[in-house]
Backbone:
């Protein structure tokens, strides 16, 4: 209970009131509640972030394919407007919830909390949350996931990591995707990896080609270990 | 534009403050933004001005200060400012989570929040109740 003190103000007197009111706290609190609900049900949520076209949906699709026969998997697809990604995943016969942000640039814990109400958590062990294709905005908004994965692809050029440093500071895993195109793009996977480690030395980086299947066993194992 | 979400949260909090207290006019709202966040001050000011139009806090100023990052290293016990990546070809040095002393990954202690520090306002001529600091 906060102490309340009362003072009498003179007319038109100017006051400076210290507040220390966090603007990120409301979302962080909801994220904690999401996490507690997931933990109670033994479900792990993985937040997948990355630019449009980096391969988030394809990566999630491949991981779902590998895991869905072992235990319950669901996917939340965040998208500003369309349902195309959700439709792709739904073809795999796992529960899919489309989260439309209606032009919002990131998912937040409130929206994810609502989506959690749409699935039967007792039947699930893993939920992939596909964030909006944006490498800036989601950084400030935790969702309640156990791990945040950033997907970058070599087709985004050699400077993707240093252009969006904040995204990597809060991540637990980085996937460098489309390595089958690295040579054609003239982009070095080793240099992208070095950039990641300049920002956060112990951040795990796995190089993949979601199309050819390279690196996906490693990603699967890494996510099961979080 | 997550600045719009942040600006909305600022305005909501300030309007709540105004309706709960004897406030004649809000002059300024002071924000503290952590160096490790990705919140852009100019965009935030732009959003704030746009949202506060036609509200009781229209014309109030949004003053923004940066809170410098502080990190702690578990391996070598370093405590202090972060290591900056100077040659990243970016507009300014990028704060990192690499220990300036031993190179291990550090934990961010300060510089990750965005908070309303204070509100400056003109009081009505009635009694004023404020929470103690």
Residues:
């Amino acid at each position: 209970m906060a102490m309340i003190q009362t003072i009498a103000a003179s007319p038109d007197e100017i006051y400076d009131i210290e507040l220390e009111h966090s603007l990120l706290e409301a979302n962080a609190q909801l994220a904690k509640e999401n996490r507690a609900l997931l933990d109670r049900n033994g479900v792990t949520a993985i937040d997948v972030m990355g630019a449009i076209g980096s391969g988030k949906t394809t990566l999630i699709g491949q991981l779902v394919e590998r895991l869905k026969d072992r235990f319950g998997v669901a996917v939340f697809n965040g998208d500003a407007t369309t349902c195309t990604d959700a439709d792709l995943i739904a073809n795999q016969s796992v529960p899919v919830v489309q989260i439309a942000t209606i032009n919002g640039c990131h998912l937040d814990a409130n929206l994810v909390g609502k989506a959690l109400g749409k699935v039967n958590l007792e039947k699930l062990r893993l939920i992939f949350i596909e964030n909006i294709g944006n490498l800036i905005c989601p950084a400030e908004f935790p969702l309640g996931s156990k791990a945040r994965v950033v997907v970058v692809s070599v087709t985004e050029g050699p400077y993707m990591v240093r252009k969006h440093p904040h995204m990597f500071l809060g991540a637990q895993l980085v996937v460098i995707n489309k390595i089958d195109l690295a040579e054609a793009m003239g982009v070095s996977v080793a240099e992208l990896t070095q950039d990641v480690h300049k920002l956060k030395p112990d951040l795990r980086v796995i190089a993949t080609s979601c199309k050819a299947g390279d690196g996906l066993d490693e990603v699967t194992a890494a996510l099961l270990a979080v | 534009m997550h600045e719009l979400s942040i600006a909305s949260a600022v305005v909501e909090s300030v309007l709540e403050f105004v309706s709960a207290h004897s406030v004649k006019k809000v002059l300024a709202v002071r924000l503290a933004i952590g160096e490790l966040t990705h919140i852009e001050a100019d965009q935030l000011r732009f959003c704030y001005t746009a949202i506060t139009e036609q509200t009781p806090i229209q014309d109030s100023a949004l003053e923004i200060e940066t809170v410098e990052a502080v990190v702690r290293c578990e391996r070598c016990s370093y405590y202090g400012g972060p290591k900056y990546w100077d040659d990243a070809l970016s507009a300014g040095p990028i704060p990192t989570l690499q220990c300036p002393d031993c190179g291990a990954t550090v934990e961010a202690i300060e510089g990750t929040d965005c908070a309303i520090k204070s509100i400056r306002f003109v009081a009505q001529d009635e009694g004023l109740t404020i929470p103690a600091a």
Summary: The beta strands of chain B are 23-34, 61-67, 70-72, 79-80, 84-85, 94-95, 107-110, 114-123, 127-131. Chain B has a mean pLDDT of 88.
